[in-house]
Specification:
Largest sheet: 5 strands, parallel
Shape: globular
CATH superfamily: P-loop containing nucleotide triphosphate hydrolases
CATH topology: Rossmann fold
Radius of gyration: 18 Å
Distance between the termini: 17 Å
Structural class: alpha/beta
CATH architecture: 3-Layer(aba) Sandwich
CATH class: Alpha Beta
Strand order of the largest sheet: 2-3-1-4-8
Length: about 220
């Protein structure tokens, strides 16, 4: 099964992508992981991306598309894949469509995780991360530590990342609305999009997503 997962920052894409990929036994293809892997391995695309990033420039679509397509061509993706963070804009969506058609393939579904903007702000701005281990994550409202500002796991200091403040989150949402949200209409025209509420527990959202996939109901 070939799936694209779309949603604003704070919708829980990373969490849901990992769970869905595991349930479906397909690789989770994350843009962030692609960049890190290509740069650390010193691939030609990785070198190109690193040069743009070090110069403070956006990585061109063709480099991002090249990395994603190379990953989709790996043996473990022969039975499908779940794309998280790609395509990021309509140009990348068009490029993906073209490459799939050339290969005689097509997408099965596009899942659109929907969450109210105020909830996104609350989720991200309330996040607190341990300085000793960034995998220890708390939330001032949803999963507060036993002692304010102190990690339950190791006793480290909890802090709010600079880009997790409300102003930055709202700017990230604006970028999402301008750049990424239009791909939903693009894929809707192909009858591929199912919108899923990202409110509720992680398990509830996963269940909704699985039920929305072709052949997965019941």
């Amino acid at each position: 099964m070939r799936i694209v997962l779309v949603g604003p920052p704070g919708a829980g894409k990373g969490t849901q992508a990992a769970l869905l990929a595991e349930n479906l036994s397909i690789p989770h293809v994350s843009t962030g992981d692609l960049f890190r892997a290509n740069i650390s391995q010193g691939t030609e695309l990785g070198r190109q991306a690193k040069a743009y990033m070090e110069a403070g420039n956006l990585v061109p679509d063709e480099v991002t598309v090249g990395m994603a397509w190379d990953r989709m061509g790996q043996p473990d993706a022969a039975g499908g894949f779940l794309l998280d963070g790609f395509p990021r804009n309509v140009a990348q969506a068009v490029a993906l469509d073209g490459l799939l058609k050339e290969a005689g393939l097509e997408l099965d579904a596009v899942l659109d995780l929907e969450v109210p903007e105020d909830e996104v702000v609350k989720r991200i701005a309330g996040r607190r991360i341990c300085r000793n281990d960034s995998s220890h994550v708390f939330h001032v409202e949803y999963s507060p530590p036993e002692r304010e500002g102190v990690c339950d796991v190791c006793g480290g200091e909890l802090y709010q990342r600079e880009d997790d403040n409300e102003d930055t989150v709202r700017r990230r949402l604006e970028v999402y609305h301008e750049e990424t949200e239009p791909i939903i209409d693009y894929f809707k025209a192909q009858g591929l999009v199912t919108t899923i509420s990202a409110l509720g527990s992680v398990a509830e959202v996963t269940r909704r997503a699985m039920e929305a996939l072709p052949g997965q109901r019941g």
